[in-house]
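Translate sequence into structure tokens.
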Amino acid sequence: MRFEREELVQEPDKQASIASDREIGASAASSAGPVSVLAAASAWIRRHSLAIFSHVALLALWWTASLKVPRFILPSPVETMATLGVPRYDWLRHTLVTGSEVFGGFLLATLIGVALAVAFNWSATVRRAALPPLVTLNMVPKVAMAPLFIVWLGYGIGPNIVISFTICFFPIVINTARGLKEVEPDLIDLVRVIRASRWQIFRKIELPSALPFVFSGMKVAAVLAVAGSIVGEFIGSERGLGYLMMSVQSTLDTPAMFMALILVSLIGVALYALVAFAERLVVPLDARVS
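Result follows.
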């Protein structure tokens, strides 16, 4: 009986101690949240310190040069940013149009390029029949083909997506086809011995091995997709940042032209960052193509 009474007396103390520990843990976790975010941000800044410094140096160089030349030749960063508050430029609408052209052409090039590279890998006949004409067509300057696309497809977002697609399509095809060929032949023979199907070989071995090359081609295509959409807007368009640049060129509105260039660059940077982020998710670090 005495031991039972002692246990009954000690039981509330244990429960109080457990509750206290939980409260301490919860408070530590809540306080660790902002600390962890700050630590991650600090680590990111240290890792990209050179890139941040180079951009700041470029901005300082731009500012210094703008003090020595007329405004219509090189506006200052402040004058350039001030154009964002001018309603007549309609920055949001033009940026959305150019962004849709860039991302649309890039996605179309990725889907068709990867599918065609897989067809090349699965069939030697398809590769011998389709690859030489593809290389020949890629030698044609895309800027020279842009007026034809305008004639065939008319004005609007659609022709500019096609122009962006034609420019960024080829790197994805070539890099993906090369990646699918880089698989070890002995590994393919081994899985064939255990009677793996053609689809299983592709899904389990060939595609994972080719992913570094696929993303390498996608990074190149991300840069080219921006150029394709701007070329289309220069030649024939009624909306978009390229159209806006051409419309303000006649009035020597250089600040607006610079702001349009900055927004175009940000679209390309956003697309490239998305591709790099997807690569980090699906491709191991030691397998990425530098």
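Note: Residues 2-47 form one domain.
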